[in-house]
Amino acid sequence: MAVEGFAMMRVTIDPVTRAKLSNLDSYLELCDEAGQVIGRFIPAHDPKLYEGVVSPAGSEELRRRSREESGRPLADILRDLEGRPSPSA
Predict the structure, then answer these.
(1) pLDDT digits 0-9 by tens, 4-58
(2) At 30, is the secondary structure helix, strand, or coil?
(3) Which residue would you say has higher pLDDT here, 23 or 63?
(4) How far apart are the C-alpha atoms of 72 and 58, rounded to whole Å?
(5) 51: which of 33, 40, 80, 82 lies 20 to 30 Å off by Cα?
């Protein structure tokens, strides 16, 4: 599945690599022989994990929230984030 507006290349992997990537529950960095990150892998989640999950908000509340116009402009959020010290500092 591609993200709208972005092309995504598909690579078919061999069974050995597939076995190495199975049962992941978090992101994975793919590195070359020198340890340089060449990409990140996000495992697909099984939709069955969400079967039976019910939102604590009722359907009317969810409809109300979807109509609500609130929040802040993205430019304001980004400006605030730029003013923060980096986590590694």
Answers:
(1) 667 888 889 999 988 888 878 788 898 999 999 998 888 887 788 888 888 888 8
(2) strand
(3) 63
(4) 25
(5) 40
| Sequence-ordered list of residues with C-beta below 8 angstroms from that of 1, at least 6 positions apart, any chain | 8
Reading the block at residue 55, the tokens are 């939102």
| Contacts of residue 32, Cβ cutoff 8 Å, sequence gap at least 6 | 38
CA angle 41, 45, 47 (to 5 degrees): 160
> Model pTM greater than 0.70?
no
**How far is residue 44 from each of residues 11, 25, 28, 30, 49, measured CA to CA in Å?**
15, 9, 12, 16, 11
DSSP 10: -
